[in-house]
Amino acid sequence: MAAARKARIERVTKETAVTVEVNIDGAGKTNIKTGLSFIDHLITAIGKHAMIDITLSGKSNDGIVHHLAEDVAIALSQTIDKALGDRARLRRFGYAVVPMDEALAYVSIDLVKRQFQNVQLKLTRDSIEGVPREDLEHFVRSLAQNLNACTHMVVHYGDNDHHKVEATLKAFAVALRMACEIDSKRKGVPSTKGAM
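User: That's the sequence. What structure does it adopt?
Assistant: Structure tokens below.
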């Protein structure tokens, strides 16, 4: 019987308080409360399309959107990383191309434990659904930077910034689901080195 791929993290600083619980082998059930509606919506989409159960609460202690968006992303990715354990028997690689109306985004993930990220959202508006563009970009970058993986997230084209971001994070979710799947043919970690 495989160990449950679940984890919980509390991240408390002078700026924020964030608690996250995930179940990699869940059904996509989510309960997200950060006080930032668009961030809640995006995390809900990640859970739904990655089929990861996510319970997340985030509270700002200083009223600064940037700090809350960043810490929520850090805590979420670190919790997923923790739940993946030694990453034995994973498919390891995942990829997806997702459209949302006129926007098209693609994401590729390698769950090797070497952090690298390339994020190209191509946003143009100053604010998307009440979240400053730079804070939304930082949220997505922080998500990729803290997963302990190699992640490429690229908007191929699009006109609507809401659609670009949402297509990107849905593609991230689908790619993550693929990469997290247990490969029934594999024994041990999926690396020629014998370690991730």
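The longest strand covers residues 16-23.
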